[in-house]
Amino acid sequence: MFPWSRTVIWAMILSGLYCISTPRSGFAQSANEQLVEDSDRSKRMFIASCGRCHGIEGKGGTGPRLDRPILQYAPDDEALVRIIRSGIGGTGMPGNWFLDESNARMIASHVRSLGRGKTVTLSGSPEKGKAVFEKGDCRTCHIIQGKGISLGPELTKIGLRRGPEFLRKAVQHPGLDLPLDRRGFKEFLVIRVVTEDGREVRGVRINEDTFTLQLLDVDKQHHSFRKHELRAVHKEGNESLMPSYEDAFSPEDINDLIAYLASLRGE
Ligand code: HEC
Ligand code: HEC
């Protein structure tokens, strides 16, 4: 290869990149066109970085819906930009270290546009849903405002953490979408073990390391095992200790229950 050819190739690549990154730059562009282009771009960035958890239209998924006029963690735009870049510590909301300040601002402006002029209404009634919740004995496995037993996740702020579609799935098809912890392991994974003397124990994984495994069973009994003493270990990928309520409740009851869960914001 000639000594200058590499430089030439680099120059071509770089000028190509420049063209891609500034598709319609030019002096003739009006301020209005610029605005439309910015808003398209911020929408695309939102979809790419946030869509898989908050939904491409911001209607919620594993993350809460963002098309709300008031966001608890982000009372103002500065707070919103901070959350977008650094995440919310100790929760499933990750930081986006690869976004610089100006990109984070563009995404923030898109998030605000989602909430403008919107009051989110769900078809169900939260008051009736509370009665369904009590009827369903959900507190035998969930804590709300300090009351209940913790086999499943605490629900005190579930309306902030999860969108309505996710909540519906959680109630109708538990286990389909197990949350991941910060190391990327499935939380509340159901494991069935067979001990050396042939006893079977089934429960959610509380802790696991190379040598030991701790389970919590439906009766809220803790079990601790040394792995080398177990005859078999079955991880039940998409199972949950939570029963499905799809058939136990009428569709109206489920709508009310979802409205109630979505209203739980820790107040
Ligand atoms: C891996 C999933 C995931 C991704 C990706 C993600 N989020 Fe989140 N986000 C969450 C979860 C879960 C929460 C709820 C945290 C909690 O309260 O437990 C959350 C919370 C938030 C909140 C706070 C909502 C409130 O009511 O105050 C905002 C704002 C937010 N996310 C914006 C974004 C934006 C913007 C992006 C893209 C740059 C993004 N998130 C990417 C999962 C995600
Ligand atoms: C036998 C125990 C048990 C009962 C009863 C139970 N749950 Fe659960 N629930 C769990 C477990 C374990 C999980 C975590 C695994 C999963 O997502 O399926 C869970 C998860 C959830 C989630 C998802 C939470 C999140 O952060 O992802 C919601 C919402 C929920 N339950 C609501 C309810 C409601 C409403 C009821 C009553 C109608 C109820 N549960 C009854 C054990 C239970």
Describe the structure.
There is one protein chain. The chain is α+β, with helices and mostly antiparallel strands and 267 residues long. The protein has 3 domains: 33-115, Cytochrome Bc1 Complex, Chain D, domain 2 (Orthogonal Bundle); 126-171 and 246-263, Cytochrome c-like domain (Cytochrome Bc1 Complex, Chain D, domain 2, Orthogonal Bundle); 190-236, SH3 type barrels, CATH 2.30.30. It is 38% helix and 13% strand. The protein is built from 8 helices and 7 strands, in the order H-H-H-H-H-E-E-H-H-E-E-E-E-E-H. The strands form 2 sheets. A 5-stranded antiparallel beta sheet has the order 6-5-4-3-7, with no helix packed on it. A two-stranded antiparallel sheet has the order 1-2. A hairpin with a 2-residue loop joins strand 1 and strand 2. The longest helix has 24 residues, at 31-54. The radius of gyration is 24 Å and the shape is globular. Mean pLDDT is 85; it is low at 16-27. Bound molecules: heme C (2 copies). One heme C (HEC) is lined by residues 133, 136-138, 140-142, 151-153, 158, 161-162, 167, 170-171, 174-175, 178-179, 188, 204, 218, 240-242, 245, 257, 261.
